[in-house]
Write a structure and sequence with these properties.
7 strands, 17% strand, Rossmann fold, seven-stranded mixed sheet, 6 helices, alpha/beta, globular
């Protein structure tokens, strides 16, 4: 089992990174593999809707060969996915959104390859707007049939300058609880393999366009 954490912050050692590291330490303490990758400093282009990934179904973005194609196999292989972002104007930062838009769409058209994994979002901010950014991350999970993991509060930590998250004691508690909960659920899922059959995807999906 493995949990992959994606840091959407351009800061390598900012508050988003510290929160993700804390979460992964809790997961690793339960004997589960972890990996932290950063995309916030990368040059990631937004989706241009060329639809070539849907035609090819090869788990690759045909338009841009960048961090998205590099990390797509890791996303598919992971059992749990954690997405962390700083809050920019009550939303996730632009580089992360560009990455998620393409990565989640490519994996979806390739056969819904992220379904039935576990997912969790963590956002870091100075003051407010965190719940909107948190909700934005969760929407990627929900549409992909990824089960979101809960904690003892919304997964939001506070801090502006790097390291200030260490003063948000409740935020740290939330992240630690989230890590333990994710590890517990991953173990339950592993224990259930071969015992409880996973739900099959719908073999006749319906898509309704509002304008025809």
């Amino acid at each position: 089992m493995k949990v992959l954490a994606i840091n959407g912050s351009p800061r390598e050692d900012g508050n988003t990174a510290e929160a993700l590291k804390l979460l992964l330490r809790e997961v690793a303490a339960q004997g589960i593999g972890t990996e932290l990758v950063r995309v916030g400093h990368e040059d990631v282009h937004g989706c241009i809707s060329c639809m070539q990934c849907a035609a090819r179904k090869d788990l690759r973005c045909a338009a841009f060969d960048d961090k998205v194609n590099e990390l797509l196999p890791k996303l598919v292989e992971a059992d749990g996915i954690v997405i962390g972002s700083p809050v920019y104007f009550s939303g996730i930062n632009g580089t992360l959104k560009a990455f998620l838009d393409r990565a989640f769409f490519v994996s979806w058209v390739a056969g819904g390859l992220l379904r039935l994994k576990l997912g969790a979002g963590v956002v870091a901010l100075r003051r407010s707007g965190g719940t909107a950014a948190f909700d934005q991350i969760n929407k990627y999970f929900q549409i992909s049939e990824i089960t979101t993991v809960g904690s003892c509060y919304w997964n939001i930590v506070h801090g502006f300058a790097p390291g200030e998250v260490a003063q948000d004691f409740e935020g740290l508690q939330i992240v630690r609880t989230l890590g333990r909960n994710m590890a517990w659920l991953l173990k339950l899922m592993e224990h259930g393999k071969g015992v409880v059959a996973p739900p099959a995807p719908d073999d006749n999906p319906v898509m309704t366009n509002f304008i025809r």
